[in-house]
Design brief:
The protein is an all-alpha fold. The protein has helices spanning 2-11, 20-31, 35-46, 49-56, 63-68, 72-87, 91-100. It is elongated and about 45 Å long.
C-alpha cells in the first residue's frame, strides 16, 4: 500500500519536477506491477537504513515481530527515498527532487 500511496503523490507532481518522466512512469507501472517491478521496489525497501534499524532494534529474527517494529511512516519514507533509484532517475536529479520537497 505504501508504494501505491507514493505513486499517487508522484502523479500529482508538477511536470517540471526533476526526473518527472521516469518518476511518473514508475508510478504508472507500480499500480499494476510485474514480478520484476515488485522485486525492484522490495530491494529498495530492504536496504533502507531506517527500516533496518527499526527491525534490528527488536532483537529477534522473527519476521512478524520485525515487521511490527516498522511504522507506516517509516515504510512510506523508505518508499519515497528509494523511488528515484528504482525509477532510474540520476542521483543529481534525485538530489534536486529531495531539495524541492
Amino acid at each position: 500500500m505504501a508504494i501505491a500511496v507514493v505513486a499517487q503523490e508522484v502523479f500529482r507532481e508538477p511536470p517540471d519536477t526533476p526526473g518527472y518522466p521516469m518518476r511518473w512512469n514508475l508510478a504508472k507501472t507500480v499500480i499494476s506491477p510485474t514480478e520484476a517491478q515488485a522485486a525492484s521496489m522490495t530491494v529498495g525497501l530492504v536496504v533502507s537504513p531506517a527500516l533496518l534499524t527499526a527491525a534490528a532494534a527488536v532483537g529477534t529474527t522473527d519476521p512478524t515481530v520485525m515487521a511490527a517494529a516498522i511504522s507506516d511512516a517509516q515504510l512510506l519514507a523508505a518508499v519515497r527515498l528509494g523511488w528515484d533509484s528504482v525509477a532510474g532517475v540520476s542521483p543529481t536529479a534525485a538530489a534536486e527532487t529531495q531539495a524541492a520537497t
